[in-house]
Design a protein that fits this description.
Distance between the termini: 9 Å
Order of helices and strands: HEHEHHEHEEHEEEEEHHE
Shape: globular
Largest sheet: 5 strands, mixed
Strand content: 15-25%
Number of strands: 11
Number of helices: 8
């Protein structure tokens, strides 16, 4: 119901904006960007300090300095707090000074004083972002070389476009990409409102994005309202965002040539286990 309500609301805003909001003089329409050159990378994180430091360093090292404006880590009430986990920083990166590490890597941490869940954490980061484009990543990834070039080219071509990279596999011990082959990019909606991988779907367009790794202009984020802050915990935001994008005049495409290695949950590797609770009442 939330997904249907969001898409209807988006359609209604498109119809009513001129007649109601604009005529009242209170509506400020987001400006279409003339240039997309700076990136804000948003990384939601809960109890994964062991990985987030490596992710920050990987994003910083893999992104051209003139493109990376900021890395925003949203700490969703981790324990211990990310900013106090010197042990995790030292284990991952061989550093002891968290403040210096963050400053050097153009990163900052926004902490919640109680758990808000993945979706609200992503919305907090997206609303805070100042770059021309917002890139959402998980806190256990490693972008590959030149990963930003296809993303920026796509967003420059159409600021109403959401783009997704190919998602490959990351070894949690070596922090290296396992293979560059077979990365997932496309998902399709099923009749029971679920989604499944469908990389064989023809053409460059993506019916439904997987949700964890994506990029859009700040303009488009503001235009469609970001994520729904009434959605809690985890799951479903990719359906909401995909349908909202397609029904509001946007599009979703694969950023060919952009790869991000992702650490998948593996029962055989305890260190990859999920480290936060997902209340079943919040999964709709």
């Amino acid at each position: 119901f939330a997904i249907i309500a969001n898409t209807i609301t988006c359609w209604m805003l498109a119809v009513d904006s001129v007649e109601s909001l604009q005529s009242s003089g209170t509506w400020l329409q987001p400006l279409v960007p003339q240039n997309v050159s700076s990136l804000s990378v948003v990384i939601p994180c809960a109890n994964e300090s062991e990985f987030v430091w490596r992710t920050i360093a990987a994003v910083f090292n893999g992104t051209p300095a003139h493109e990376l404006l900021e890395i925003i880590v949203v700490d969703d009430f981790s324990y211990p707090p990310i900013l106090s986990d010197v042990a995790g920083l030292g284990t991952s990166m061989g550093h002891q000074d968290i403040t210096a590490f963050l400053e050097f890597h153009k990163a900052k941490v926004l902490r919640h004083n109680k758990p808000q869940g993945l979706i609200r954490s992503k919305k907090h980061g997206g609303d805070t972002a100042q770059g021309d484009a917002i890139v959402f990543l998980d806190c256990h990834v490693k972008p590959m070389e030149t990963w930003t070039a296809p993303i920026i080219a796509h967003l420059q071509e159409n600021p109403r476009r959401v783009v997704v990279p190919a998602i490959t596999s990351l070894d949690p011990d070596t922090w290296e990409e396992v293979s560059s082959f077979g990365g997932g990019t496309k998902m399709c909606l099923t009749w029971n409102a679920d989604f499944t991988w469908c990389n064989e779907f023809p053409g460059p367009y993506v019916p439904i994005m997987s949700g964890g790794l994506l990029a859009m202009t700040k303009f488009w984020w503001d235009s469609i309202g970001g994520y729904d802050d009434r959605m809690r915990s985890w799951g479903g935001e990719n359906l909401d965002q995909s349908l909202r994008t397609w029904l509001c005049g946007g599009e979703i495409m694969v950023a060919e040539g952009s790869r991000v290695a992702h650490m998948w949950r593996d029962a055989a590797k305890p260190k990859t286990r999920l480290r936060y609770d997902i209340p079943t009442d919040d999964v709709r």
